[in-house]
C-alpha cells in the first residue's frame, strides 16, 4: 500500500511521468506539447464564445432600444398609460444593462484572457525552443555514437582477424610474415583509434543526455506551472463570466420590478372615471318618440276660392271687386 501511495504521489507531477527508456524517443515532450496546445485551443474556443456572447448582448441591447423608441401606445390614458410609459422607459434601461454587459464581457473577460493566452504562448515557446535544441543535440550525439560503435566493432573484428593470421604466419616466408605482422599492427592501431573515438561519442552522448534531461525537467516544471495557471485562470474567468451575467440579470429584474410597482397602481375604476370626466357628453338622454295618429290630429281650415277679375290693364286679379272698380 505504501508503494502504491508513493506511485500515486509521483504521478501528480509532470517531471515524474513523461519519460521513456528509448534514447531516441521524445514522446513525453510531445505529450506535454499536445496538452498545452489543446489547452491553448480551449482558451481560443472560450474567447470565441465570450466574444460572440458580447456581440449578442450588444445586438439585443440595440434591438431593445429601438423597440422602446418605436413603441406606440400614445392613445392610452390614465394609470394604464403610466404603466405603459414605465414599461417603455424600463425597456430602455434594460437595453443599457445589456449594453454595459457587452462592454464588461469584452474588457474584464475577453481582453484579460487574450493577454493571459499571449503571455502563456511566449513562455511556452521559449521553453519548447530550448528543449527542442537539446533534443536535436542528443539525437545527433546518438547517431554519432551508433556510427562510432559500428566502426569500432568492425575495426576490432579486423584486428582479431589480422592477429589470427599473424599467429599462423610462422609457416610463411619471412617477407610474407613481415607483411602479415605489419597488417596486424595497423589493424590494431585502427581498432585502438576507433575505440578512442567510440569512447568519445559515448561521453558526448551522455553529456547530451544529461543536458536534455536537465532541460526536460525544467520543461516539465514550467509546463505544469503553465497548465496549473491556465486551469486556474479559466476557472476564475468562467466564474467571473457567470457573476457578470448574474449581476446583469438582477439589474434587469429590478427594472422589471419597477414596472410591476407602477402596474400595482393601475386602477380599472380610476381609468374609467378619468375617461368619463375628460370626455363626457352629458347625462340627459333623448326623450322617447311618441306615436302620432294622422286622424287624431285637427283638420286644416279650407278657405273658399275667390273669383278672378279682369281689370283695365288687362291683368287678372283675384279677390272681391271694390266699389270704385265697378264705377
List keywords for this structure.
disordered C terminus; 2 strands; about 325 residues; about 0% strand; two-stranded antiparallel sheet; 6 helices; mainly alpha
The helix/strand order is HHHHHEEH
Which strand-content bin applies to the residues? Answer: under 5%
Biggest beta sheet attributes: 2 strands, antiparallel
Specify Rg, calculated over alpha carbons: 56 Å
What is the helix fraction of residues, given as a range? Answer: over 70%
Q: What are the segments in which pLDDT stays under 50 over at least 5 consecutive residues? A: 310-327
- Mean pLDDT, nearest integer? 87
Distance between the termini: 168 Å
Strand order of the largest sheet: 1-2
* Morphology call: rod-shaped
List the total number of helices.
6
Class from helix and strand fractions: mainly alpha
Describe what this molecule looks like in 3D.
- The chain is mainly α and 327 residues long.
- The protein contains 6 helices and 2 strands; from the N terminus they run H-H-H-H-H-E-E-H.
- It has helices spanning 2-10, 27-70, 78-167, 174-264, 268-279, 323-326; strands spanning 308-310, 316-318.
- It has a two-stranded antiparallel ribbon.
- A hairpin with a 5-residue loop joins strand 1 and strand 2.
- Helix 3 runs antiparallel to helix 4.
- It is rod-shaped and about 195 Å long.
Summarize the structure.
With 327 residues, the chain is mainly α.
Secondary structure topology:
Elements: H1 2-10, H2 27-70, H3 78-167, H4 174-264, H5 268-279, E1 308-310, E2 316-318, H6 323-326
Antiparallel strand pairs: 1-2
Helix pairs in contact: 2-3, 2-4, 3-4
Amino acid at each position: 500500500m505504501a508503494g502504491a501511495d508513493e506511485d500515486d504521489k509521483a504521478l501528480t507531477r509532470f517531471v515524474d511521468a513523461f519519460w521513456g527508456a528509448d534514447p531516441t524517443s521524445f514522446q513525453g515532450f510531445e505529450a506535454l506539447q499536445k496538452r498545452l496546445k489543446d489547452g491553448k485551443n480551449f482558451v481560443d474556443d472560450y474567447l470565441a464564445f465570450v466574444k460572440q456572447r458580447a456581440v449578442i448582448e450588444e445586438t439585443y441591447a440595440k434591438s431593445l432600444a429601438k423597440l422602446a423608441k418605436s413603441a406606440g401606445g400614445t392613445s392610452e390614458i390614465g394609470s394604464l398609460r403610466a404603466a405603459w410609459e414605465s414599461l417603455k422607459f424600463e425597456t430602455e434601461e434594460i437595453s443599457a444593462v445589456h449594453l454595459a454587459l457587452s462592454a464588461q464581457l469584452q474588457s474584464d473577460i475577453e481582453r484579460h484572457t487574450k493577454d493571459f493566452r499571449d503571455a502563456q504562448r511566449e513562455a511556452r515557446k521559449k521553453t519548447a525552443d530550448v528543449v527542442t535544441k537539446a533534443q536535436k543535440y542528443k539525437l545527433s550525439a546518438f547517431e554519432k555514437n551508433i556510427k562510432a560503435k559500428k566502426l569500432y566493432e568492425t575495426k576490432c573484428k579486423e584486428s582479431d582477424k589480422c592477429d589470427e593470421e599473424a599467429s599462423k604466419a610462422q609457416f610463411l616466408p619471412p617477407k610474407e610474415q613481415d607483411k602479415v605482422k605489419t597488417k596486424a599492427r595497423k589493424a590494431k592501431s585502427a581498432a585502438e583509434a576507433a575505440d578512442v573515438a567510440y569512447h568519445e561519442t559515448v561521453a558526448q552522448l551522455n553529456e547530451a543526455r544529461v543536458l536534455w534531461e536537465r532541460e526536460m525537467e525544467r520543461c516539465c516544471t514550467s509546463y505544469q506551472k503553465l497548465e496549473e495557471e491556465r486551469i486556474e485562470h479559466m476557472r476564475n474567468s468562467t466564474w467571473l463570466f457567470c457573476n457578470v451575467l448574474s449581476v446583469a440579470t438582477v439589474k434587469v429584474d429590478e427594472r422589471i420590478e419597477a414596472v410591476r410597482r407602477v402596474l400595482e397602481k393601475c386602477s380599472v375604476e380610476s381609468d374609467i372615471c378619468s375617461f368619463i370626466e375628460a370626455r363626457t357628453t352629458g347625462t340627459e338622454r333623448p326623450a322617447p318618440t311618441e306615436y302620432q295618429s294622422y286622424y287624431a290630429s285637427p283638420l286644416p281650415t279650407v278657405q273658399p276660392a275667390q273669383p278672378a277679375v279682369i281689370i283695365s290693364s288687362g291683368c287678372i286679379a283675384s279677390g272681391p271687386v271694390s266699389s270704385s272698380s265697378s264705377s
